[in-house]
């Protein structure tokens, strides 16, 4: 995400405040006052605004035109006194200039050479600070883009995590439903088994009863001549019991078939429950992986924020070093004496200034 540029009105307002405070207005002082922006652009906006402003002229004070006559004798004495004072003052000025020149000439050269050296060092520091701030701005923009990308990735991971959690909840619900159906089938199987056991007991009882009837039949046949009517009744009773045995055998066969079918359904339900549990395990593993990725993305975002804060502090220290260099240069300028040089001294001063400008 690119930073919004500082408006021209804001730059002009801060430049006027710096000028009113008696400080020099340039790109780095504007950046220090605003807190952001490229120094070359800030200085360009301020320079264009100065060009649009006309430089006013200070009106000159009118000279008085009044005239008062002076007596000739007083005028001659005044003229002679003025000549004497001018000659004396010229001698004093020449002596003062000569002494000042001899005293401060060597000191001026040393201080000027030291000032040039410090200015060169300040220029190097300013260039290094400009490069550092430009690099810091570029790295800050890159880190902000990377942070935005990580935030977007984190949002997508969270959406995927929400979908997986919903799927997990649905799978758990299906698993609980399958478990309930399995329990119901187990109950039904147990009921059918009980019915089959009851049928088997009834069949065994009928068979035992049939065996007893057969014994009685043999006894009745031995006594056939004495109990023909009893034999006929017993045969009818045996026939009834045999019908009951056939019916009980059929019921037992049906119960066994139903028990087998219930056992098959229970096995299928168990397989479905096992598949649901395996899907649940896979979903939980996917959720753990996505959670780990989300944690790593958040840790990387915090690390990028820390780097951005460190780069901002480095830029602020560079600006503080540049302001200190400017203050040191202003203090050195204040140490240079502002005496009125003689023509020869003025000529040397002009040469030094031309050399300073070339530097």
Automatic annotation (TrEMBL):
Residues 256-277, 336-359 are annotated as: Disordered. Residues 265-277 have a biased composition (Low complexity). It comes from the Bacteria. This is Uncharacterized protein. It comes from Dankookia rubra.
């Amino acid at each position: 995400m690119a930073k919004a540029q500082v408006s021209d009105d804001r730059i002009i307002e801060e430049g006027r405040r710096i000028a009113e405070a008696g400080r020099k207005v340039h790109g780095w002082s504007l950046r220090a006052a605003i807190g952001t922006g490229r120094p070359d652009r800030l200085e360009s906006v301020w320079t264009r605004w100065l060009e649009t402003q006309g430089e006013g002229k200070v009106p000159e004070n009118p000279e008085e035109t009044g005239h008062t006559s002076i007596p000739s004798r007083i005028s001659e004495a005044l003229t002679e006194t003025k000549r004497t004072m001018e000659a004396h003052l010229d001698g004093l000025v020449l002596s003062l200039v000569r002494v000042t020149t001899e005293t401060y000439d060597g000191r001026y050269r040393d201080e000027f050479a030291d000032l040039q050296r410090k200015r060169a060092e300040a220029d190097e520091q300013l260039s290094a600070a400009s490069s550092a701030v430009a690099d810091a701005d570029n790295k800050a923009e890159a880190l902000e883009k990377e942070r935005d990308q990580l935030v977007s990735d984190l949002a997508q991971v969270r959406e995927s995590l929400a979908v997986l959690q919903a799927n997990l909840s649905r799978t758990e619900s299906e698993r609980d439903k399958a478990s309930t159906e399995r329990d119901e089938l187990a109950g039904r199987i147990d009921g059918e088994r009980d019915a089959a056991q009851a049928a088997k007991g009834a069949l065994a009882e009928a068979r035992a009863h049939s065996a007893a009837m057969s014994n009685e039949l043999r006894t009745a046949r031995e006594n056939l001549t004495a109990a023909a009517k009893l034999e006929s009744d017993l045969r009818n009773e045996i026939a009834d019991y045999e019908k009951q045995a056939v019916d009980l055998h059929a019921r037992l066969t049906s119960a066994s078939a139903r028990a087998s079918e219930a056992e098959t359904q229970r096995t299928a339900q168990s397989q479905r429950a096992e598949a649901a549990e395996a899907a649940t395990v896979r979903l939980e593993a996917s959720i753990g992986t996505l959670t780990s990725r989300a944690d790593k993305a958040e840790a990387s975002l915090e690390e990028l924020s820390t780097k951005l804060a460190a780069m901002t502090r480095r830029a602020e220290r560079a600006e503080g070093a540049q302001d200190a260099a400017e203050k040191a240069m202003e203090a050195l300028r204040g140490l240079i004496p502002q005496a009125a040089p003689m023509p020869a001294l003025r000529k040397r001063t002009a040469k030094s200034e031309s050399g300073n400008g070339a530097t």
